[in-house]
Amino acid sequence: MTIHIGAAPGDIAETVLMPGDPRRAKWAAENFLQNATCINDVRGMSGFTGTWQGHRVTIQGSGMGMPSLSIYANELIRDYGAKTLIRIGSCGGMQDHVGLRDIVIAMTSTTLSTPSRGFFRELNFAPCADFGLLERAVAAARGHGVTTHVGGIYSSDVFYDERQDLNDQMVRHGILAVEMEAAELYTVAARFGARALAVLTVSDHLPTGAALSSDERESSFGEMVEIALEAAFA
Ligand SMILES: O=P(O)(O)O[C@H]1O[C@H](CO)[C@@H](O)[C@H]1O
Ligand SMILES: O=c1cc[nH]c(=O)[nH]1
């Protein structure tokens, strides 16, 4: 057990999918894993371990924002031996061509700050995805026939962002989408020699204000889970 994860040693698989929403962890475990059991419910941040095509997988909620994700990523890697961590999250499309339900696979993520910022002092560390996971996720997404974008994203500290000028610079520099966790996931994984990737589904589109309904979110999110699982074990 750790401070934030109640799982016993050995209860957590080496491959962990990490949605922000603990209810998405439960939904994904029920729909995509065999023999899934709940291995964590500390603070209601549910985690489940089961198998997918014979491979052991844990799906553990990360909470929203980089400080929360950082706690879970640190404990999963350092205390439970997780080696592959794939975020399965929602995001806001920032470019006109990044539409609702599209998949975004993050090569790298720009931030103002992460919980790791203090380590680097004057250095601007460039968080980046594991290339092997990334290329397998792209192949899996193509196999699903879903519109997929691969490139840079923005991990923001705020959901209700009043700095339109910052968003404008992101758009100008080709950033595909905004979410709130990937940069810290990539940074923590790099620090401890783990592999990380973020596979995201566009749940809303910033240029137009279009957004998926909750029903549409559930049906679209299935492809993201399958892409992440295929990338982990291809
Ligand atoms: O859908 P999840 O994985 O939570 O991801 C996105 O949704 C939350 C904001 O609503 C943030 O956590 C953001 O990164
Ligand atoms: O962080 C997020 C997630 C989804 N949509 C957004 O606009 N931001």
Task: Describe the model.
Belongs to the PNP/UDP phosphorylase family. InterPro entries: DeoD-type, Nucleoside_phosphorylase_CS, Nucleoside_phosphorylase_d, Nucleoside_phosphorylase_sf. This protein has seven helices and ten strands. It has helices at about 20-30, 65-80, 115-120, 130-145, 165-170, 180-190, 215-234; strands at about 15-20, 35-40, 45-50, 55-60, 85-95, 105-110, 150-155, 175-180, 195-205, 210. A five-stranded mixed β-barrel has the order 5-8-7-6-9. α5 (about 165-170) links the parallel β7 (about 150-155) and β8. With about 230 residues, it is an alpha/beta fold. α4 (about 130-145) crosses α7 (about 215-234). It has a single domain, classed as Rossmann fold. The chain binds 1-O-phosphono-alpha-D-ribofuranose (R1P) and uracil. 1-O-phosphono-alpha-D-ribofuranose binds next to β5.
